Amino acid sequence: METFGERLHAAVAERGPLCVGIDPHASLLARWGLSDDIAGLERFARTVVDALADRVAVLKPQSAFFERFGSRGVAILESTIRQSREAGALVLLDVKRGDIGSTMAAYASAYLDPASSLCADAITVSPYLGVGSLQPAFDLAAAHGGGVFVLALTSNPEGPAVQHAVTATGKTVAQTVIDEIAQVNAGAQPLGSLGLVVGATIGETGHDLSAVNGPLLAPGLGAQGATPSDLRAVFGESLRNVLPSYSREVLSAGPQGSDLRVAAERVLDDCRAALG
Questions:
Q1: Which pTM does this prediction carry?
Q2: Which CATH number does 4-275 carry?
Q3: Inter-residue contact 245 to 94 (CB < 8 Å)
Q4: What positions carry a catalytic annotation?
């Protein structure tokens, strides 16, 4: 069984370092001339998958934009995950779950157990009940070759109040998260399966990412203000593990699949040039 780190490393080598979000929020559906309902959601998601799943390394559906339509929206999310993976893309499901005990285990089972119709290659999680509370997700990911991306340094303005707070050890909360993930990934080749989410808009972080040995998801590029040239300031010597993530910058080029492909190729070229 290949690990997620192995699969991601191979996908990036073959297709390039790019993650594209699938974020069907109401304003984007309207921009595409689609109705803000199940029909519009299904058309949007299928168009993105048909255009990009056979060429980008990672697709990242945002679960909330499907969940807002209830069970029918979740059914479309299931189809989106399945169709994306069948076309060769890895699926990072953006759910940002975080809980304790049996509840965290249930979340992990929903998204990381191959028996689930929502199973993805990897998920995002929140560590603010303690990194140890995420162990059920780490364990299930390891058992089935999945991945987990842990929020570390996010670009929202409220983030630093928590993430930069100093703990009793003298480290920030964010550095504590970083160090715990690095410890789990230690020795993994070619890449660990636990990643971090580090916003591309935050500039010099003052945090040490050098030992993470796992993928570093960099949202915030494009419409949120960051450019590929900003990645060096944020990630420094860890650029080789960065997975740039775009959503609106690519999605706003729709609804034509050919235009989505052109937009994805353009940002991928920019990222390749910046990452070296």
A1: 0.97
A2: 3.20.20.70
A3: no
A4: 96
